[in-house]
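My current task is to audit a protein record that another person submitted. Alongside the sequence sits a line of tokens, each denoting a local backbone shape. Please read both lines and tell me whether the tokens look consistent with the sequence. Do not assume that whoever made the record got everything right. Thanks in advance; the entry in question is below.
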Amino acid sequence: MTSGKPPKQPFPSNPPPPTDNGFQQASQYDPEKNEQYRRGVKMLHERCKSIQRHNERVVFRLHSVKRLIKTRSRDVEMLKKRLDRYQDNWRCAPEKTAVKLEESKAEEKESD
């Protein structure tokens, strides 16, 4: 049982000589040019694989960061609830950045 296609014929090993205008006919096989295309395609394929690996690493890192953010948010909420349960006055405490700003302003005034 055949597919109806003719069998593949091997390429001729020797290209025909150039025609009178100095160019080969376009339908003729050129092994050097074919090898150039083969190398180019191979390089392009390797570059595509490299880009794909890089993209997969970025996607993996993105998922990891999303998991970390989700875990941190869950931990913060749990800590807030626990502090509220202990009736700690944590919501009225000054922020760390505000304290640092006040300290730096006080140091500036002392140096004047």
